Amino acid sequence: ARDFIGWKGNERNPAECMSRPTFGLDPNMKKYASIQALADQDSLHNQSLSLSILLGLGAMGKTVLLRLVCVFLGFWRLSLVKAEDPYLYYTWTVTYGTASPLGVPQQVILINGQFPGPKLDVVTNNNIVLNLFNKLDQPFLLTWNGIKQRKNSWQDGVMGTNCPIPPNSNFTYKFQPKDQIGGYTYFPSTLMHKAAGGFGALNVYARPRIPVPYPSPAGDFTLLIGDWYKTSHKALQQYLDSGRTLPFPDGVLINGQTQSSFSGDQGKTYMFRISNVGLSTSLNFKIQGHTLKLVEVEGSNTIQNTYDSLDVHVGQSVSVLVMLDQPPKDYYIVASTRFTKQILTATSVLHYTNSKTSVSGPVPVDATYRLHWSMQQARTFRWNLTSNAARPNPQGSYHYGKITTTRTIVLSNSAPIINGKQRYAVNRVSYINADTPLKLADYFNIPGVFSLNSIQGVPSDGPAFVATSVMPASLHDFIEVVFQNNENTMQSWHLDGYDFWVVGYGSGQWTQASRKGYNLVDALTRHTAQVYPNSWTTILVSLDNQGMWNLRSAIWERQYLGQQFYLRVYNPIQNLANEYGIPTNALLCGKAVGRHP
């Protein structure tokens, strides 16, 4: 132990021991370990002096005791290093390519030559180090949809936190799915790149010592479903920039295709992880002749209800178990559009390995306009209170319904015309990106980039306007957020950095009396919530993650044209226990150019 920490005779003391390298830790963890070590050093040094005096050991006793303290600190640091979670290293290259997802050749975005992009299979708390090379002709970012980025909004990959990666350049993301499990996704957050691909699955599996509330499935399938356009992403962007809205999609894809297959053995049970990575359309998912047992939604283990089909709204993810308990043949897997006059579908095939019969007959599709049915289904998604998630303690040990809220925020979306062009807004404010990421402007105290008074916490009358809108909030607040949708369209809202309890859905206008219908016992947590036409949805959020966090419409046209803002969760006392410092490799742009991290 003395050799490990560099202890040599009488020349070392606890302070010098603590100045030795913290092996294998990233700079932020080193800094935190050093701060903690200094506090421990003072305490131990004072205790050793007290013991020397009390025991009358004199100088010799003091020296021996200090040596023992030094050895102890060496073992402490060794245990810290050994306890560090595994590192996973990736190198991804983003390029253009040609594919024909709807039968017509078109330009798509590839990651390492793949469309959709590579699947990331990781374990809770793995450290992900991903070097992303941008070979496109435009700046580019990926965001990690649903990964909370604990204390680390620097890695969120959106325009308010990161400078986009310039063409022919690279950036290394370093992040951790801290205390998370479940099915998630990643996708481009820049411009309209998401309409060309660049998206993929990110599955976070439980650590081996943490049990899951169901038997291990025989296999694990990931299905990325979403609407799709034959038109290029640049042409779609021009549509929006000219003040027009996007046309109706041309089709629906499952894993970048209109037809694919998944094979399994009769009598066995398989996991299907389903995510809606589309631009604008809610989808209904079903497997012909089979029931879907819902087991997980965006990191929450659920009451295991069974369904014939599930609505999955834009940006959302669900995981279901499917038992192959039917006669051996092939069955349709169907993703079809919801709440649209024209129904678009994509099909895959569930193939029994002992099947000798191909799929046949009409594709089973549910009726499209079933708003009440869909809202009722959403209310049946409940938290499994006795199950753990990523941690060993039960989910129900957190009694969110007994916590007094510190603030109520009501957010009303709208579709105003501003300067003759179509925009979208929240509480009359249509968001525009600044030339400097908000997180950098906040860190370097750069004036004139954003204002904390630009958006109000309740709707108000008056014309809509454009602004770089940021709403202030205090760390450790517990807030109620009401999404009020007075439009005749579906809405889907996502909050970076958090999951939240979806406690209520209702029609018409939300009022304080609406709280009587809240689920304050077993509402599940998730990161994306739907709001039905002319209706409201309420969430509760524990603001325990400091940073600059994007609250946006998951419907990409609306996000691109202003239906978003940033929530600045802040504590004026700077502490690495609350938030990590700026990464040493942070890209600098706009007014942050020339400043030093």
UniProtKB/TrEMBL annotation:
InterPro entries: Cu-oxidase-like_N, Cu-oxidase_2nd, Cu-oxidase_C, Cu-oxidase_fam, Cupredoxin, CuRO_1_AAO-like. Signal peptide: none annotated. Keywords: Glycoprotein. Pfam families: Cu-oxidase (PF00394), Cu-oxidase_2 (PF07731), Cu-oxidase_3 (PF07732). Residues 94-207, 220-354, 435-572 form the Plastocyanin-like domain. One of its GO terms (molecular function) is copper ion binding. Belongs to the multicopper oxidase family. This is L-ascorbate oxidase. The lineage of its organism: Eukaryota, Viridiplantae, Streptophyta, Embryophyta, Tracheophyta.
